[in-house]
Amino acid sequence: MNTPVVITRETSETVVRVEARIGTGLAHIETPVRFLNHMLTVLARYSAIDLTVSASGDLRHHIIEDVALAVGAAIAGLVPAGAARYGERTVPMDEALVQAVLDVGGRPFYRGPIPSALYEHWMRSFSDASKFTLHLRVLRGSDRHHVIEAAYKALGFSLRQSLSDTGSVFSTKGAVRLERL
Predict the structure, then answer these.
(1) Where are any strands of DSSP class E within the chain?
(2) Among candidates 145, 132, 160, 169, which has minimal Cα distance to 45?
(3) Looking at CB atoms within 10 Å, which of 4, 39, 102, 139 has the fewest?
(4) What is the mean pLDDT of residues 30-34?
């Protein structure tokens, strides 16, 4: 059974609810930030993660950041014990060319940048909350929209690859288990 991971994040600034499951890439996104809605729809589609996100809040910055934290936590809950672990994809979008390299092995690290402070912060917050290592390289591109969208597509494809269940653990440490008390 493919049980969804549900994360709810409530602060004095925002209310965010995320539901994620491995699926076909269906997206139901409702935030007041239209470009964020578009990028989350792209991420769902290219990762084959069914993603439902609702968010409200005071400032665009707070909504984008808190959605990243909740989406990262939800997707981290989808990592199977036998995950392929690593994913890499380079995506062209018109004049833009962006590479994403991902490790879902539980070590948070982010290296960019992409040409938007808000979406650069989204990627860093996503990486921190998911405990994924994410490297994004903008190889070329002059249109910010195209570069950012290519980054989300490349991340989506990398997630699809790294979350695939191989049936064996890709680490010399074996399976790593963390427990919160």
Answers:
(1) 5-10, 14-22, 27-30, 49-57, 86-93, 96-103, 109-111, 133-140
(2) 160
(3) 139
(4) 98
Residue 63, domain extent: 5-163
Better pLDDT: 163 or 171: 163
Exposed / middle / buried, residue 141 (Cβ in 10 Å: 0-12, 13-18, 19+): buried
119: CATH: 3.30.230.40
CA-nearest of 41, 42, 70, 45 to 128 is: 70
Reported as a single tens digit per residue, the pLDDT across 115-130 is 999 999 999 999 999 9
Asked if the structure places residue 149 within a domain, the reply is yes
Examine residue 175 and state whether it is found in any structural domain, yes or no.
no
**What value does the mean pLDDT take over residues 145-161?**
98
**What is the number of domains present in the chain?**
1
Query: Could you tell me if residue 148 is inside a domain?
Result: yes
Among residues 166, 165, 159, which one has the least CA distance to residue 91? Answer: 159
CA dist 91 to 7, 117, 171, Å?
Answer: 29, 21, 27
